[in-house]
């Protein structure tokens, strides 16, 4: 019986893989990897191959989505295959779909979890994880059309006093990575259309850059100021806080250099 | 200048630590660990010490909360200290508090992320992460008093069609770990009080046991059936699905052996 093991690589570089994940890759007959669902900014494929002690076959979005992972599944039908993926597997729908197709073909599947931007960005922000509402992706505007979903999700969460974690779009093929400034510009443009005062120049926001690296940056400020802040290289994420507990305000001041004035907003 | 590095150990056993996390522990002058904020069911302290090549000082809730981590901070003021924690650091408020106190004392802090139950349970359930509303902890009832927060959070999320991830209480000191059955009983008791038809015997729920281990169990079924299902040893988590996309229903059927009838609920 064949076997397909999904191994999460974590956030930033090759040494973010777990000992267990690396052992699974060493034991595998074949190792595949995909790097388009998230961006691991300091990952070096050759170094990763040095660790796994075997060649790594990088698959594309096309291989996984249009071809439905056929190459991987055909191979997994005959032996032990590892698929390395950024972050934690199954945060991307693509991986869940591939897992379902594998199980339907009688291939046993298993998982080695990795660090995910979901918990990393929540944790780095200093905000409490159980006060986050649903999260949302802010996509690049294609042909000038702005999808209103991110704005609506932030508005819904705000109404309930909840924080929103925003994942910023990645077009790995074109090496296009949305920055915090891009995201704030898109949200500001949506504000102009909707006018519900969800994102104003004086709304507090938290930018998180390069989570998982040796030099992540977490900076909280009002939108107007945050748009001018230099977060450096991608990947970036954005958090829109809801109602702040006073301990959360202290965390933003100490850990994200938020203006001390935010104490007045806290309850 | 002193340094305090928070290293996430991941979910289950010593080999869930990342290569980077292990390197940080090896480089440290002193290594502390806490094991009360989550339960790593197969972690062996001696094996972990074998990996870090130095003794690990286990700290208690009392050390971190009542004593405010003074022992760790005094040591970190003078050199490089690593604190090993289950899961991903800063998902527990205790770690955020300790980080703030360290920074206030001029101790540089940094993080090595680990796999978290937040993304692991979402991923194992097969449900889409951006459709999860806020998560909630179900606490043990103390002296028969039922806090209504979990019920209310599930109800709010349901109203919006969103899924709810429930963390189940851990009393590490007494080795008491809430099971999926305990949690469903508490929610059913709350239903009797509130009568909003949030948790009925025919409500669909998903139990996740031992995420991150070699033999995790994910099982979806109606509450009445799920209460009789044997999930085995802790730790357990529980997901209450909101509105199901048809792909999510397929995922629950294939990956969590949900009754095929749930296709009728999907949109």
Question: Can you walk through the features of this model?
Answer:
2 copies of one chain form a homodimer. With 267 residues, the first copy, chain A, is an alpha/beta fold. Chain A is 34% helix and 21% strand. The first copy, chain A, is built from 10 helices and 12 strands. Chain A has helices at residues 19-27, 45-52, 61-66, 70-76, 93-104, 117-125, 149-159, 180-194, 223-226, 246-256; strands at residues 3-8, 30-34, 56-59, 80-85, 108-112, 136-138, 164-168, 170-171, 176-177, 204-209, 217-222, 236-240. In chain A, the strands form 3 sheets. A 5-stranded parallel sheet of chain A has the order 3-2-4-1-5, sandwiched between helices. A 5-stranded mixed sheet of chain A has the order 6-7-12-10-11. In chain A, a hairpin with a 4-residue loop joins strand 8 and strand 9. The longest helix of chain A has 15 residues, at 180-194. The N and C termini of chain A lie far apart (57 Å).
Short description:
The structure is a homodimer of 267-residue chains. Chain A is of the alpha/beta class and 267 residues long.
Strand and helix map with partners:
The structure is a homodimer of 267-residue chains.
Chain A: E1 3-8, H1 19-27, E2 30-34, H2 45-52, E3 56-59, H3 61-66, H4 70-76, E4 80-85, H5 93-104, E5 108-112, H6 117-125, E6 136-138, H7 149-159, E7 164-168, E8 170-171, E9 176-177, H8 180-194, E10 204-209, E11 217-222, H9 223-226, E12 236-240, H10 246-256
Parallel strand pairs in A: 1-4, 1-5, 2-3, 2-4, 6-7
Antiparallel strand pairs in A: 7-12, 8-9, 10-11, 10-12
């Amino acid at each position: 019986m064949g076997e397909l093991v999904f191994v999460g690589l974590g956030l930033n570089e090759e040494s973010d893989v777990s000992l267990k994940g690396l052992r699974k890759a060493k034991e595998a007959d074949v190792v595949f990897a995909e790097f388009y669902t998230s961006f691991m900014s300091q990952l070096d494929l050759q170094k990763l191959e040095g660790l796994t002690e075997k060649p790594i076959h990088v698959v594309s979005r096309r291989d996984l989505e249009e071809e439905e992972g056929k190459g991987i599944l055909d191979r997994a039908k005959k032996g032990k295959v590892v698929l390395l993926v950024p972050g934690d597997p199954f945060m991307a729908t693509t991986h869940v779909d591939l897992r379902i197709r594998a199980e339907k073909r009688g291939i046993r599947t298993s998982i080695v979890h990795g660090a995910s931007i979901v918990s990393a960005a929540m944790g780095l922000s200093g905000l409490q994880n159980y006060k986050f509402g649903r999260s949302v992706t802010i996509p690049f505007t294609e042909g000038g059309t702005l999808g209103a979903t991110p704005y609506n999700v932030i508005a819904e969460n705000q109404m309930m006093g909840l924080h929103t974690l925003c994942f910023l779009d990645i077009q790995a093929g074109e090496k296009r990575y949305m920055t915090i400034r891009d995201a704030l510009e898109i949200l500001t443009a949506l504000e102009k259309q909707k006018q519900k005062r969800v994102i104003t120049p004086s709304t507090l926001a938290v930018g998180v850059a390069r989570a998982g690296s040796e030099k992540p940056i977490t900076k909280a400020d009002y939108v107007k100021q945050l748009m001018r802040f230099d977060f450096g290289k991608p990947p970036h994420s954005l958090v829109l806080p809801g109602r702040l507990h006073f301990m959360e305000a202290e965390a933003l001041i100490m850990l994200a250099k938020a203006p001390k004035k935010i104490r007045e907003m806290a309850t």
